[in-house]
Amino acid sequence: QVQLVESGGGLVQAGGSLRLSCVATGSIFSINFMGWYRQAPGNQRELVARITSGGTIYYADSVKGRFIISRDNGRNTVYLQMNSLKAEDTAVYYCNAVQGTNYWGQGTQVTVSS
Q1: How is the beta sheet containing 18-26 ordered, strand by strand?
Q2: Which of the four pLDDT bands, split at 50, 70 and 90, describes residue 112?
Q3: Cα–Cα distance between 45 and 43 in angstroms, integer?
Q4: Which whole number is the average pLDDT over 77-97?
Q5: What angle is formed at CA 82 by the lines to CA 53 and CA 45, rounded to 5 degrees?
Q6: Is 42 exposed, middle or buried (0-12, 13-18, 19+ CB in 10 A)?
Q7: Which long-range contacts (CB under 8 A, 24 or more apart) does 26-30 make?
Q8: Which among 77, 97, 98 has a CA at the least distance from the CA of 23?
Q9: Could you give the CA distance from residue 30 to residue 39 in angstroms, rounded to a whole number?
Q10: Which has more pLDDT, 85 or 52?
Q11: What angle do CA 73, 25, 109 make, to 5 degrees?
Q12: SS3 assignment, position 95
């Protein structure tokens, strides 16, 4: 079992920045992927960014050049630095870990005011 706890969401003006953090605890020794998804009202949950245990990174086209995902293996933490935020980035952001199955955090609200 893996437990994920997110932090760092909030309200920010368009053009601003936020950093999300996700700490993984439990049986974390063989996590393959860690990443961030988001879900806006009325929309499906979508992948924002993902990083593998080997450091390979994927970004959704909508966030390329603005968001940066990083992973601190010593702290079992994954970060999402979000810059140049837009109103359309408003969503609940969920941390995700894949270890044979998907594990999810509780979600953290990010609201960008225009």
Answers
A1: 2-7, 18-26, 77-82, 67-72
A2: very high
A3: 7
A4: 97
A5: 70
A6: exposed
A7: 26/1, 26/2, 27/1, 27/2, 27/99, 28/2, 28/76, 28/97, 28/99, 30/99, 30/100
A8: 77
A9: 27
A10: 85
A11: 90
A12: strand
Tokens 């609201």 correspond to: 111
pLDDT in tens, 63-74: 999 999 999 888
Query: How long, in residues, is the chain?
Result: 114
What's the rounded Cα separation, in Å, for the pair 102 and 22? 15
What integer best gives the mean pLDDT of the chain? 94
Please say whether the beta carbons of 68 and 57 come within 8 A.
no
Cα torsion angle, 83, 89, 47, 30, sign: positive
Both tokens assigned to 45: 């949950």
Q: For residues 76-93, b (16+ Cβ closer than 10 Å) or e, as one string? A: bbbbbebeebeeebbbbb
- Between CA 89 and CA 14 the distance in angstroms is 9
Strand, coil or helix: 73: coil
